[in-house]
Specification:
The complex is a heterodimer of chains A (536) and B (515). Chain A has 536 residues and is mainly α. Chain A has helices at 9-44, 52-65, 82-91, 94-99, 101-124, 129-140, 143-148, 155-175, 178-192, 197-233, 235-248, 253-256, 261-270, 280-295, 297-312, 318-324, 329-339, 365-378, 383-399, 404-410, 419-428, 440-450, 464-471, 473-476, 490-495, and strands at residues 2-8, 435-438, 457-458, 477-482, 504-509, 514-518. The longest helix of chain A is centred in the middle third of the chain and has 37 residues, at 197-233. Chain B has 25 helices and four strands. Classes of the chains: A mainly alpha (536), B mainly alpha (515). Strand 1 (2-8) of chain A pairs antiparallel with strand 4 of chain B, so a sheet runs across the interface.
Amino acid sequence: MNLQFSVNTEVFQKVISFLKKKELTGVFIILSVISIVTFVIFYFNGLGLSYNDARSHLDIGRRIVEGLKPGLAQIGSVWLPLPHILMIPTVWNDFMWHSGLSGALISMISFVATALLIYLFLKELGVGVIGRLTGVLVFVANLNILYLQSTAMTELLLLATMTAGAYELLLWFKKDNVLNLVKSAFFVMLSSLVRYDGWFLFIFAVALISIEVFRKKGYKVTEGVIIIFSTLAGLGILLWFVWNQLIFKDALFFMFGPYSAHTQQEQLAIAGNLATKNNLLFSTKVYLYSIAYNCNTFISILGVIGAVVLWFDKKIKTKIKIAATVLLAPLIFNILSLYLGQSVLFIQGLSGNTWFNARYGIVMMPSIAIFIGYLIQKADKLKFVLIGLMLFVTFFSFANSDAVTIDDARVGSSQKNVTEVSGWLKNNALNKPGFILISAASHDAIIFSSGLPMSRFIHEGTGAYWQQATSYPSLWARWIIMRTYDNNDMTYKAVSKTPDLIRYNLVGKYPFADIYELKDEYLGTLITQPILGKQK
Amino acid sequence: MKITQSIILFIFCSFILALSVRGLPGNPNSSDLNKQTWKENGPFELSPERGRFALLYSIVEDHSFQFSNEIGKFASPDVVVSRGKYASMFAPLVSFITIPGYVIGKFFGVSQVGAFAIVSLFAILNLLLLRAIAIRLGANPIASTLGAMIFLFATPAFSYAVNLYQHHISTFLILLSLYILIRFKNFWSLTLVFLLCAASIPLDYPNLIFMFPIGLFAVGRIITFEKIREKVVTTIRLPYFLTLSIMILPILFFLWFNQMSFGNPFQLSGTLPSAGHTFSASINNSQDLASKSRLIEDAAEPKKEKTALGFFQSRRILNGFYIHFISPDRGVIYYTPVILLGMLGAALAYRKRVKLFTLFLAIIGANVLLYSMWGDPWGGWAFGSRYLIPSYAILSIFIALLLTYWRKSIPFLIIFLILFGYSAAVNTLGAITTSAMPPQVEVLNLEKLSGMVQKYTYERNWDFLQNGSSKSFVYQTVAKKYFSATQYYEILAGLIILAGLSLTTFLWFSGRNNK
């Protein structure tokens, strides 16, 4: 008494060929839906703007198009410029700015692009459809990735540009078509304008290309190929030096300036909070923990096994193995920068009881996804067990909202709960005339969260307004927001040298900043309109 | 010949377990159970044993699923409050299964030993099942015997074969299901597999996860896909669908138990509020360091709403792996390094395309991952990593395959013997002394609490032994007159290692003769 039915294999073949034709479109549609739904979830639960840095990125973009001194110079030197330049077409809109969508949109597009690139990368490695889809699934079903793609953070853009660069490099290694080399150079150049990880990728790619070409064609050809690649791939880095020279009169301003990571790390080192500096073992440990927490320990281990399988697979040509080495660039870069004291990463339990920049491990996610896709291809009958176990742990990470990036953003040192100050401004300054004097370098999160137009704020990037207001505060600023007695706060540093502070009442004292309001008797002489005209 | 070997193995292992099973003579009543001689100094040193025995005792003696005040105190801190009454926090089936042992034991004046002996019986059944499975998968019978002995005597499974824990019964359900799937393909075999799958839940809730791959595999025997010429033929064996209906029996039992205990058939005990605080005064007045430490830990933990899924967090995997494999207080490399050979055996089994290999791997994977995500990967106060006992069982099958493959290699056999000897010595120590080993993370608090240095590795068991103590029933009632605790340990460990050495020598000879 069996129920039996059969389907002609032709039907399966038709379905498979249809799917093959539409595979990328299908994956694209699914990813886009996931991306949008995830953004909506994080928008409505309010987590999308939890990262202090996310709010600063949005403000930088906004200052380019709106404020007392709008213009490209607002890009500044703290962060590399591409994410902010890409925000320009949308950030002028108040909703796009304050919802964070202006920045998140870039992350969302990057998310879809990275997942598609993982799919394509695996295809080029000869991985079948199950392996490819598993690779994409590993990347997409990561709550940290889904969270970061819903924010105005720069990680996803970095992943997209780096993965695109790596993919085109793989194609060049495989096909020796110069067009792929140029495309790779282009994406590496873009990544070098997102984060400094891209700079290391540039150096790493140059090294890999040199090895491959020198191995096959000798020195002369190597020289030519490296020039072709570096001219475009290194252009972004060169332009960044030029920019710093032109705007800040110091090509190395981004590296050693007062707002640079180097300066911040030096302060941490003096305070004894930079344990990774000059300690390679601890740097490695901290970064591996970060990978384990961001990408999931079990999935990371499978990724390592996948990498080993790939490198020991005799069927894979040496040149492909060399090209695939590029996937390790983020790992080496992050360990090195921790060791050299150029970056800071706190993991709860290893570096005290807090998180800070815990998200850095996420940059290994595409590499891990690719290695796992390859492992699935090679795992034969075990593939379904491995996929099942990955789904098992992923289920629990979603069921318990287990994402280290969200913790970092909500309760770690990467968050800044400025609602008290920004709320005060919203309630008391919105409908009253007058400027607010504030340091954007210290309090961008307050500027963003207040909901006030950028043109209400006098900050370091407003040129003559800043100079005037910090020299004669009571003429220009109805409110001053600053950390009193903290010389790292540029507003306090300048205002404390003037006698004007006695003309203000301290109306609020909060953990991140104090609020001063001009006494009523001085309101008569207060300038409340932008009278300085267009500045150069 | 095979049957003779099995009988010898059965007799030898029963003898060793009989010498090791923990206990005291007598039929304790509820007030006896709360005495130090039965609790921290006796066979009920930790709350998992007490909780399960408390339910057994309540059912048999008080005819109730809810605890009296005395029994609640005995079982604390693992007691929950439901509708103002105390109930067990543990899944109920172990208590039910051990009732016959309790009743028979009571007849002979050793009710507690009778209950514990049921667990030992399951341990022996596991040993026989392991040997049978390994032989079915192509391992040499001597290697299979060795593999089975490794599981029982050279892993923390030994410690949990002589007291009242669920691990051996859970492992029995897994191994019996695997054996049935390897051996049979008929209607009744599938029925039994589904019955075992469902029965595993009221035994220990996480069994649901380990038995899931087995259930899925069994379903694969009902629905099959075949490629015949140009067609893919799907066959659904309709009568076999009836086999699934057997699952209703254990589920009904479980729902009935929940209804009787908590007033709601769908209420899981783990999600109910603990009654630990009610008995905190009596715990604090006792010598029970484990429960005291537990109260401190519970008080320090932020109060959150309990959910079944909330116990498992993927972020804990890293720490979980460390605890299970590397840590000095629970790690496999300290307690049972011989089982690591099972990983080599697994690679061999994969290469040789051993039957059901994917299913074995799925069970190990689910076991290790689930208990790495668990909030307490240490298993509370415990000897070795007790949660991995199902994985030790499957890995010992792979060791049998490895021993078969490399039985002619003297260097390998020497390494194997060294690892086996060490692991057997460590685990025999655990079995006849105590399982009350604190996790390393609790030691500082514990030292403050007790005012003395607290060890958290098997050195603690060694100290226990050196103080002339053993919790073995036979030692305490008979052997104590003739041997010191250390001598007793040396005899037991010596017998096990000697048996391992003899079997390895036979294995080597059998390899040589097959040249």
